[in-house]
Amino acid sequence: MNWLRRLSRRYLTTGGRILLGAAAASAVAGLDPFRTQLGGLFVVIGSLTVITLILGLLTRPRLSGQWSAPIRAVAGGRFRLTVRVLNQGRRTAYDFEAYLDRLPEGLSHGKEAPESRHDLLEPGAAHELRIPLWAWRRGAYDLGPVYVGSTYPLGLLRLGRKLAGQRRVLVTPPIHPIAQLELASGLRYQPGGVPLASQTGESMEFVGVREYRHGDSLRKLHWKLWARRGEPVVREYSQEYFSRVGVILDTFKPTDLEPAVEVAASIAAYLERRDAIVDFFAAGETVYTLSAGRHVGALQSILDVLACVTACKQPPYARLEAQLARMLAGLSAVVVVTFALNPQREDFLERLRVHGAPLKVIVIGPGPCPPEAVRVNPEEMPACLGRL
């Protein structure tokens, strides 16, 4: 039935589908010997359809074009596909429109918009149409192809051509404002601070010297002071110390993963505004590990991962710990977005506490939680996120 629905949407307008439904109803009703007059309605509708088809084929315009889609959209919002249509024929094109006959689950057409249709296009002329779409759910969506067709003369049938190609749109989770996030964190020494600052274009201020540590760059050695002291020392820059926060998204058997994803996105956005480096961790089908520095696009990289993360059926904590082990010593604080406690979660949180980094636990929804945790009610998301 899906293929029949796609064909009807591709070749029939809304009025055409209503007329087709009326024809089917009249045909069935006409089988009743006491209602044979309804069979005449079927004949009239069928004749009208044939006439429309013949006229449409005779006046069918030669249309071509290209289309594009935004790289990203936000769940709960609207975005548009842009279609540039060119009339390559010798006749004027009337009543043409752009449309998609197939949409992934999570996207919808919504109401038909005037911007996706145009009344008249002269030979050799071009016009830009826009197809509005609503994104109801985050995810990665492959769209295409787009169809361009004319509904002339009676607005019942749509005849045109396909514009090939596919475009991928990442629908990222919405971000809610956070006024304050209380973290018992400070600055931590980052051995990669100097290269990171040079990559992000930030200037570094010389603040003093310190003892040489294994792995320090030789270019940072202070040769004159080394000769005077008799032991190696290196120059120290203010940009070697960062506030570096780990954000862990628990994806194990959630009642509803979406609120947790939105909370993680909002926390990442808050930390990005405070110039913190964010290390993001999550485990779905694969383990996601992303270190986002202080550069343009850092937050967007985290949102791209959050657009695709899925719930997992097996406890992911062992895999997460393997990724966390080499980074925990450099973290100023760790924020865990999780759900109601169970034995696996309790063990995981306890092992994080042992490593010494200040831990903040945010529990989504009802159920048992640690005494120091902050609970977020999904139904009161904006109010709960005002202050964490």
Total DSSP E strands = 21
Poorly predicted spans: 193-203
Cα-atom radius of gyration:
30 Å
Q: Round the mean pLDDT to the nearest integer and report it.
A: 81
Helix and strand composition category: alpha/beta
Name given to the CATH homologous superfamily of the domain at 241-385: von Willebrand factor, type A domain
* CATH architectural type of the domain at 241-385: 3-Layer(aba) Sandwich
Shape: elongated
How many DSSP H or I helices? 10
Helix fraction, binned, reads: 25-40%
Descriptive report:
- A six-stranded mixed β-sheet has the order 18-17-16-19-20-21, with helices on both faces.
- Helix 6 (257-273) packs antiparallel against helix 7 (298-308).
- Helices cover 30% and strands 29% of the residues.
- It is elongated and about 105 Å long.
- Among the domains are: 65-172, Immunoglobulins (Immunoglobulin-like, Sandwich), CATH 2.60.40; 241-385, Rossmann fold, CATH 3.40.50.410.
- The protein has helices at 2-11, 14-29, 37-58, 193-200, 223-229, 257-273, 298-308, 317-324, 343-354, 381-385; strands at residues 63-68, 72-74, 78-87, 93-99, 107-108, 117-121, 126-135, 139-143, 146-150, 159-163, 167-172, 188-189, 206-211, 233-237, 241-242, 244-249, 277-283, 287-292, 333-338, 359-364, 374-376.
Structure characteristics:
single chain, 388 residues, alpha/beta, Immunoglobulin-like, Rossmann fold, 6-stranded mixed sheet, 4-stranded antiparallel sheet, 10 helices, elongated
